[in-house]
């Protein structure tokens, strides 16, 4: 179990839902603030930003290495530098966005993408750090974020078991004692068929840490399924309306969907219960209305037991239904009124 801004995150608690703003502000601070309010109204627990500039992520260059593949469904052929220009959250927006989030009861933190981002976010006293999937191999960045003593969340999209182990080891060796590791498919949008959620218990066993999902699939089905497999933290991109467009809109939740995710993930967690079989306390009343053998019309002493006077009906109280093979053909030892549970002393 870990805690983020005083809220427990782990198997004994409802899933912690993080809403990712990313580039869905569409270049407007007012829209970004409106998304913060929508996230709070939906009942999510945290707001997350991404802290970078195009120059901290790449260089202003062209050529195949600096362009998305033409087949990419959202950003095909676009230069990395131009994409990051569109998607970045201006650093001067961070303070008002974090302030609005705190006012609305949200934890607010970010993904740093280089040392200058960590330095900047430390001045804003963020309560946690998130390492994006592409930065999982940047062990110096992980060590720097871990050395702050803040909780660290690491996404594992594209990563091998060895790379995940190296990242977790780097975080621990740098002093991180509160770590969460997220399963992730780093494609945008991601196909549910590539989520491989059955790997979540494997991820937990490999790392020994709290696990969750950073999900880029449509809708909320994948994160809800993840809860059943041990996800304690759920991260989803959020927008006001997908129809408004934007860098991440296609794989982002709208506010009503985010609210449904918060509600249904808590229900899914609650439904996990314990690995036991048997009647639940709430079923005690139902046990009274199981079927059993009853006398279904008035009978006289000496009358033979048969389908005309004894049947399996509700409620409970009589012999079990399967006892009908043993009682059929026997005789009643006394008069018995209709509605009497059949017991051995009556025949």
UniProtKB/TrEMBL annotation:
InterPro entries associated with the record: AFP_Neu5c_C_sf, Aldolase_TIM, PseI-like, PseI/NeuA/B-like_N, Pseudaminic_synth_PseI, SAF, SAF_AFP_Neu5Ac, SAF_PseI/NeuA/NeuB
Protein name as catalogued: Pseudaminic acid synthase
Keywords: Transferase
MF annotations from Gene Ontology: transferase activity
PANTHER family in UniProt: N-ACETYLNEURAMINATE SYNTHASE, PSEUDAMINIC ACID SYNTHASE
SUPFAM superfamilies documented for this protein: AFP III-like domain, Aldolase
Lineage: Bacteria, Bacillati, Actinomycetota, Actinomycetes, Streptosporangiales
Enzyme Commission number, as recorded: 2.5.1.97
